[in-house]
Amino acid sequence: MKRLLTGLVALSCLAAAPAFAALKAGDKAPDFTAQASMGGKVFTFSMKDALKKGPVVLYFYPAAFTPGCTLEAHEFADAMDDFHKLHATVIGVSRDDIEKLNRFSVSECRSKFPVAADGDGHITNAYDAALKFGPKEVSNRTSYVIAQDGKVAYEYTSLDPSKHVTNTMDAIKAIEHR
């Protein structure tokens, strides 16, 4: 019992502690393509192609259908009209498989923005957005704003989903006013 309590305390401290992504403003954002789903339809997302249209909000989240990730997806879905007015693309990335993301993209993303499958973690690792705890590696809750020049304009890491949408929207607006 003491061992279990010690483990739970350690895990809660890890989850509560802020983790900072290595990519910072000004860094070159890694290019990638990934299998993604929007409205339950699978397609290939290309960062290079998305940047041709405007800035990209790339947000990593731990797992589809968990409470925080569902809340965050709802908030991004609610804000999509405002992101579109700023010519921004939003894409969520998790280590979930595409079948699970097909369902998540419809129910929680409300068919308003795509989510990409990163089963092997290569995108998560390239963006240094991994959170490790327990036996399984998952993505941390990290949001990046990538400017059209392919450089990171903004980075925010917090397991609390409440500020990711507001912060990335503000970062997009700052790019527009440069």
List keywords for this structure.
25% strand, globular, alpha+beta, Glutaredoxin, disordered N terminus, single chain, 178 residues, 7-stranded mixed sheet, two-stranded antiparallel sheet, 9 strands, 6 helices
- Helix coverage percent: 25-40%
Radius of gyration: 16 Å
Strand content: 25-35%
Ranges where pLDDT stays below 50 over 5 or more residues in a row are 1-19
CATH topology: Glutaredoxin
Query: What's the CATH H-level homologous superfamily?
Result: Glutaredoxin
Order of helices and strands: HEEHEHEHEHEEEEH
Query: Number of helical runs?
Result: 6
* End-to-end gap: 56 Å
Shape type? globular
Largest sheet: 7 strands, mixed
Main CATH class: Alpha Beta
Question: Structural class of the secondary structure composition?
Answer: alpha+beta
Please tell me the overall pLDDT.
87
Please tally the β strands and state the result.
9
Q: Looking across the biggest beta sheet, what order are the strands in? A: 2-1-5-4-3-8-9
Give the number of domains. 1
By CATH, the architecture is named: 3-Layer(aba) Sandwich
SSE layout:
Elements: H1 2-16, E1 33-38, E2 41-46, H2 47-51, E3 56-60, H3 67-85, E4 89-94, H4 98-107, E5 115-117, H5 122-126, E6 130-133, E7 136-139, E8 142-146, E9 152-157, H6 164-176
Parallel strand pairs: 3-4, 4-5
Antiparallel strand pairs: 1-2, 1-5, 3-8, 6-7, 8-9
Helix pairs in contact: 3-6
